[in-house]
Predict the 3D structure of the following.
Amino acid sequence: MDLKPRNKISTSFSMSGMTDIVFLLLIFFMATSTLINPNALDLLLPRSSNQTANSPVATVSISSDLNYYVNAEPVKYSQIEYVLRETFREKNVENPTISLNADQRVPIKEVVRIMNIANKNEWKLILATRAD
């Protein structure tokens, strides 16, 4: 009796099903990655053509080589808050406004450090810009 199997096992593998799955995963990840918004801030940046009604009591400047100045006097970063407090106390100002002048090459981290000092003490801060 000669018995031959009717179904032969194919040794080839079809990749079409695998490529369909890969493309579906790719589309899924692309669609979901556009929905993720990691703590984005909606900022309204000041324009240089507008002027503020507040006049600053003190000016904090940061040079490109990261030297700090309060009213054109060189100050170490650790002493900025103290110098500003003394300036406001001498001028007897209750709600002071500070003007922040930073060189365009100064890293944003340094600008934020001054903003944090103003925020902690509830001082108003104006970021100075130049005219177009």
